[in-house]
Each structure stands twice: as structure tokens, then as C-alpha cells.
Design brief:
Number of helices: 3
CATH class: Alpha Beta
Order of helices and strands: HHHEEEE
Structural class: alpha+beta
Helix content: 25-40%
Number of domains: 1
Largest sheet: 4 strands, antiparallel
Radius of gyration: 12 Å
Strand order of the largest sheet: 1-2-3-4
CATH superfamily: RelE-like
Distance between the termini: 25 Å
Length: 88
């Protein structure tokens, strides 16, 4: 499973830039996706951000009060996968 499935989040991850979003949102998403992808346990995820269950085996880490990165957890590989940027 790919780590990032959202092209906007993929660009933010690679460049810390996306012209159609406010810079504070881009900076928050860039910081959070790097930490989420580095996490290898639920304990680490919980130390980084508040994680909410969305259902269908998806979770969300909220930042900037109106944005979240949703993701699935690959238990076999112990990593975040299928990450997407979402407006709340």
C-alpha cells in the first residue's frame, strides 16, 4: 500500500508548498505527514497528535483546527499508509 494516496499531500510532503492552500495549513500538513510516516507504533502516533477513529479502518490526526490527515494503519508493516489531506 502506498504511504500517500493524495496528490496534494504528496506535493506538500515533497516540497512544503501548495499554491492553493494557506501557508499555515501547508506547514502544518508538512510537519505532521513527516512525523506520521516516521511512526512505527500506536504509542508514537499518540505522542505526536490526537488520533481519531473514522471507521472503515481509517484514522485522522487533526491539525490547525480545520484540517486533518486521514490514514490507514498497516499492522503488518507497522506504518501509516494511504494518507490523505482532509478539510474538516
Amino acid at each position: 500500500m502506498p504511504s500517500i494516496t493524495d496528490p496534494i499531500l504528496s506535493q506538500i510532503f515533497a516540497t512544503c508548498a501548495y499554491p492553493d492552500l494557506p501557508q499555515p495549513v501547508v506547514a502544518g500538513a508538512h510537519w505532521l505527514i513527516h512525523l506520521l510516516l516516521a511512526s512505527r507504533s500506536w504509542a508514537t502516533l499518540g505522542a505526536i497528535a490526537e488520533i481519531y477513529a473514522l471507521g472503515d479502518d481509517r484514522y485522522a490526526a487533526v491539525f490547525d483546527q480545520h484540517w486533518a490527515i486521514s490514514f490507514a494503519w498497516d499492522a503488518t508493516a507497522s506504518r501509516v499508509c494511504e494518507a490523505r489531506l482532509e478539510a474538516l
